[in-house]
Specification:
It is a single chain. With 342 residues, the protein is mostly helical. Helix content is 70%, strand content 3%. The protein has ten helices and two strands, in the order H-E-E-H-H-H-H-H-H-H-H-H. The chain has a two-stranded antiparallel sheet with strand order 1-2. Strand 1 and strand 2 form a beta hairpin. The radius of gyration is 22 Å and the shape is globular.
Length: 342
């Protein structure tokens, strides 16, 4: 039988892909304005200079952005004086139009949507498989499936994100990019395409494992509490927000280190320097502690929570809603087929 027709929990992998794709687009539309405002406030406080890097998050994944050489019209350099977050929202909409709240989004979706589709579909397929194989230990299936799915999606996307950053920072054509990658691989080996992969996994794998385990447990508890067999939109939204918040708090030190190292690697790349000279994850962690004390590893606690909680809630509730729609559709079609044949 065709793999696309093999159903898991009443829906096919293709239907899981459509559900996760819809969830990914909705999540990015809701969460991106928060990050656009944060970056604009950041640029106001400390203007971005040539070759400077910053991290842009569309609610699905982080993207490294390099300030374009001589481009004074870039969205993150738009003039404006804001007194706070709310004032920035209102002022940007009034002066630049509501579309400005989604500045820089389209190019990042090319990477983020496929990564999210791979991640969520892989998780569901792996979780269903592990539950049947693990017997009485099946409660740990979400933990393992979440970790493995995240490793898979990060491994696929990491070289593509590196290529995107290189194209943006050095303004390369596709032909020049091909030569640049070939030279890099020859001098530094194939693993150079996965530079920055380690710090990403240090944050994302524990986050993913904790998130899915707590989400499945929370969803089950809420279903029992409200005496329902099928999780509602509200149940999945609450479970997603709470589990996302717990995972975000627990992995915050890894997020701080990963962001710092990502920016340093990007700035080396923008200056066309070898990233072999870049510091290790451990040395970055030691430097942060030396500069700011142990509390430095928990910097940005509130902004991360404000960003992660709604992103997790919107993504998972939309994904579950899409799956519920397809499950009901498949069930109705199967029942009508049986009635017709009888």
């Amino acid at each position: 039988m065709n793999a696309l027709k093999t159903e898991v929990n009443g829906i096919t992998p293709f239907q899981q892909m459509i559900s996760s794709c819809s969830g990914a687009i909705l999540t990015s539309l809701f969460v991106t304005p928060l990050d656009v405002v944060k970056i604009r406030l950041q640029a106001q406080k400390s203007p971005f200079s040539k070759g400077k890097c910053f991290v842009y998050c569309n609610g699905l994944m982080d993207h490294l952005c390099v300030c374009e050489n001589g481009n004074s019209k870039a969205w993150y350099k738009a003039p404006g004086h804001f007194t706070g977050t709310l004032d920035a929202f209102i002022s940007i909409v009034r002066r630049e139009g509501i579309k400005s709240l989604w500045s820089g989004l389209p190019p990042t979706l090319v990477m983020a949507v496929p990564a999210t589709v791979i991640y969520f579909t892989s998780y569901d397929q792996l979780c269903a498989l592990l539950r049947t194989r693990m017997g009485r230990h099946s409660g740990a299936a979400p933990l393992l499936a979440g970790a493995i799915a995240r490793v898979g999606s990060a491994t696929v996307i990491s070289p593509l994100e590196l290529i995107r950053t290189k194209m943006q920072s050095q303004k390369l054509s596709y032909r020049e990019l091909s030569v640049c990658i070939h030279t890099s691989v020859q001098s530094e080996g194939w693993l150079s395409l996965w530079r920055g992969w380690g710090p990403t996994l240090l944050r994302d794998v524990p986050f993913s494992a904790m998130y899915w385990y707590n989400y499945e447990q929370g969803k089950r508890w809420l279903c029992q509490h409200y005496k329902t067999t099928e999780p509602t939109f509200t149940i999945t939204f609450i479970a997603g927000a709470v589990s996302g918040s717990i995972a975000a708090i627990a992995t915050l030190p890894f997020d701080v280190v990963k962001t710092r190292r990502q920016i340093e690697l990007g700035e080396l790349q923008a200056l066309n320097l070898s990233a072999q000279t870049s510091p290790s994850t451990l040395s970055v962690m030691r430097r942060i502690v030396a500069e700011n004390g142990p509390t430095g590893l928990f910097a940005g606690f509130l902004p991360r929570l404000i960003k992660v909680a709604p992103a997790c809630a919107i993504m998972i509730s939309t994904y579950e809603l899409g799956k519920a729609f397809f499950r009901k559709r498949n069930h109705d079609r199967a029942r009508s087929t049986v009635q017709t044949s009888s």
